[in-house]
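[INFO] parsing input record for DUF1450 domain-containing protein
[DEBUG] input buffer:
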Amino acid sequence: MGIVVVEICDGSLINSINLEEILESKYPEVSVLENTCLSFCGMCAKRPYAIVNGKRIFAKTAEECLKKIEEHIEKELAIYA
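[DEBUG] output buffer:
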C-alpha cells in the first residue's frame, strides 16, 4: 500500500479517465482504491471527486479533478521528502 491513498467510488464521474493507471504509474507511492460507495450520497453523480488521504477533492470535470488530486498528492509527498 502506498503512503498516499486515493479512494474513488465506482459510480463517480472521475471514472471517465483511468485514474488508477495515471496516478500509480506517475507516483509509485500512491495506491488507488475503488469502492462501491464512499458514503457521500449523490456526489458521485454530480461531479468528479476522490478522497486523498482523507480529504475530499472535487472539480467540475474529470481533468480538473485529476489536476487537483495531483497537486494534493505533491503536497502529501513533500512531507516525506
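[INFO] The first strand starts at residue 4 and ends at 9.
[INFO] shutting down worker
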